[in-house]
């Protein structure tokens, strides 16, 4: 069975380098054992996803742009959740 990968073709070449950063950060977050290790990585992921979300060349008529925006929004939501959960965990540990 062959696997076909869907590739986002960014009209300005921004997606691929940011995607590489995002993949590295995601792997690091997944490998981190504690919330305090995950939180700074989540903030870095927020920054990396934000670069794509703030793209000045975004074209809502371009399917690639829409896919990039959709993926980036999901990653931003995930990173924000990790950061919030980590912050709550840190507060609970400092009060416990």
Q: Which helices and strands appear, and what pairs or packs with what?
A:
Blueprint: H1 15-31, H2 35-53, H3 63-95
Characterization of this structure:
The mean pLDDT is about 90. The radius of gyration is 16 Å and the shape is elongated. It is built from 3 helices and no strands. The protein has helices at about 15-30, 35-55, 65-95. With about 100 residues, the chain is an all-alpha fold. Helix 1 (about 15-30) runs antiparallel to helix 2 (about 35-55) and helix 2 (about 35-55) runs antiparallel to helix 3 (about 65-95). The longest helix has about 35 residues, at about 65-95.
Helix content: over 70%
Q: Give Rg in angstroms.
A: 16 Å
Task: Classify the secondary structure makeup into a structural class.
Answer: mainly alpha
Q: How many helices does DSSP assign? A: 3
Mean pLDDT: 90
Span of the ends, CA to CA: 53 Å
Strand content: under 5%
User: How is the biggest beta sheet arranged?
Assistant: none
Tally the beta strands. Answer: 0
> Unreliable segments (pLDDT under 50, ≥5 consecutive)?
none
User: What does the overall shape look like?
Assistant: elongated
| Secondary-structure element series | HHH
Defining key terms:
96 residues; 3 helices; elongated; 72% helix
Please sum up the structure shown.
Helices cover 72% and strands 0% of the residues.
């Amino acid at each position: 069975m062959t696997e076909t990968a869907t590739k986002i073709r960014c009209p300005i070449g921004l997606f691929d380098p940011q995607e590489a950063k995002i993949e590295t950060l995601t792997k690091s977050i997944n490998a981190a054992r504690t919330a305090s290790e995950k939180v700074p990585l989540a903030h870095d992921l927020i920054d990396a996803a934000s670069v794509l979300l703030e793209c000045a060349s975004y074209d809502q008529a371009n399917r690639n742009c829409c896919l990039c925006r959709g993926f980036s929004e999901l990653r931003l939501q995930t990173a924000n959740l990790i950061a919030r959960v980590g912050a709550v965990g840190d507060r609970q540990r400092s009060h416990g």
